[in-house]
């Protein structure tokens, strides 16, 4: 136990510098990169509602293995559980670098106000949104694990309108896009990705790309949320019958044709 504690402090029992902090940094970067890219893929997935609710349901069935067998929600539960595990590990690793008490937060805010440095401010936003995500992101993922059979356009529309989940989704959208976008930017800066001959100019360009991407994903997310709200209102906010899985909705549509 003492070896582990001293490893976190950066020294081994023999007094030598430990490699553990560096390894944890690599793991934090790797999990952050995975989650950032997953976040974008997830946004593309949920935005398929902009094509049509039927297309969204077809995508759900495809991701649940419809090319191999009858679509099974358990596939979604397994995938989301793995994502949740990576999310939890990333959160624990990120907590290592957060101020641990109010006085440290106050000192950081004073420092940030004095130097007025863009990257310092972005770190503060990232830390704050990360704290929000720990609760909102966990709640969302847990709900998807245990209610994987309720992923369809109508189910989401019902949650958005009749259960007032639009408030939850807006907060989660803002936290995810700000945290993830800043995180990917900081990864590029930290590891020297896309760095040209002039590091300072490269960082400025990366920051512009980062804010452009954040604006794009936020706009797409809000438009997507409006599409679900529109569908929910068109359905008079009626609850979806239990066990109305996406594949069953598609089959009933085909029968009606």
TrEMBL record:
UniProt subcellular location: Cell inner membrane; Membrane
Keywords associated with the record: Cell membrane, Electron transport, Heme, Iron, Membrane, Metal-binding, Transmembrane, Transmembrane helix, Transport, Tricarboxylic acid cycle
InterPro entries xrefs: Fum_red_B_TM, SQR/QFR_C/D, SuccDH_FuR_B_TM-su
Major subcellular site: membrane
CDD domains assigned: QFR_TypeB_TM (cd00581)
Annotated Pfam families: Sdh_cyt
SUPFAM superfamilies: Fumarate reductase respiratory complex transmembrane subunits (SSF81343)
Function, as annotated: The fumarate reductase enzyme complex is required for fumarate respiration. This subunit anchors the complex in the membrane and binds a diheme cytochrome b.
Name the record gives this protein: Fumarate reductase cytochrome b subunit
Organism, as annotated: Campylobacter gastrosuis
Source organism phylogeny: Bacteria, Pseudomonadati, Campylobacterota, Epsilonproteobacteria, Campylobacterales
């Amino acid at each position: 136990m003492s070896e582990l504690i001293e490893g976190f402090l950066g020294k081994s029992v023999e007094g030598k510098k430990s490699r553990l902090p560096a390894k944890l940094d690599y793991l934090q970067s790797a999990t952050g990169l995975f989650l950032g890219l997953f976040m974008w893929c997830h946004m593309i997935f949920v935005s398929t509602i902009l094509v049509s609710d039927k297309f969204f349901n077809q995508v759900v069935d495809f991701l649940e293995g419809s090319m191999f067998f009858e679509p099974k929600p358990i596939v979604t539960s397994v995938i989301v559980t793995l994502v949740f595990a990576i999310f939890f590990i990333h959160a624990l690793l990120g907590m290592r670098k957060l101020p641990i008490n109010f006085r440290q937060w106050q000192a950081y805010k004073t420092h940030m106000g004095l130097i007025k440095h863009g990257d310092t401010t972005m770190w503060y936003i990232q830390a704050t949104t990360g704290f929000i995500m720990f609760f909102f992101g966990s709640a969302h993922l847990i709900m998807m694990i245990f209610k994987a059979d309720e992923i369809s356009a109508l189910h989401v529309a019902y949650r958005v309108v009749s259960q007032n989940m639009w408030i939850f989704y807006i907060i989660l959208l803002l936290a995810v896009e700000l945290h993830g976008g800043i995180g990917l930017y900081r990864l590029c800066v930290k590891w020297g990705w896309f760095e040209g001959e002039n590091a300072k100019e490269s960082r400025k360009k990366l920051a512009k790309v980062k804010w452009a991407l954040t604006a794009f994903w936020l706009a797409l997310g809000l438009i997507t949320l409006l599409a679900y709200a529109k569908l929910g209102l068109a359905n008079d906010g009626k609850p979806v019958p239990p066990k109305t899985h996406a594949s069953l909705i598609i089959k009933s549509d085909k029968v009606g044709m």
